[in-house]
Design a protein that fits this description.
The protein is of the alpha+beta class. It has helices at about 20-35, 65-80; strands at about 1-10, 40-45, 50-60, 85-95, 100-105. The protein has a five-stranded antiparallel β-sheet, covered by helices on one side. A hairpin with a 6-residue loop joins strand 2 (about 40-45) and strand 3. The protein is elongated and about 45 Å long. The protein starts with a strand and ends with a strand.
Amino acid sequence: MWVGWIEFDVRLGDVHSLKEKRSIVRPIVNELRKRFSVSAAETDSVDLYRRAGIGGSLVSIDRAHVVEVLDQVERWMAARPEVEILQAHRHIGSSSDDEGEQDELPFA
């Protein structure tokens, strides 16, 4: 069994309240779930209205499938005009592996 997750630290554009933040973050999380069949959630900076942590994860029998889906999620998030990705972290591990692979993805 292979497990993969990706987490993005994002800055939101012209947002002035937590309500406006939710109106941007919630549709992104819902679309990640629907489009890529991943578990997704807001994961960090819940009390800050211009920052958000958004993460997604999946489990598969095939490592290549996990890598492919995480790559697609990363490209989709990078194309979102309403967010600026400040940092992204990815981890892929197997149930028979204590270490796994971890990549830090640079975004500037």
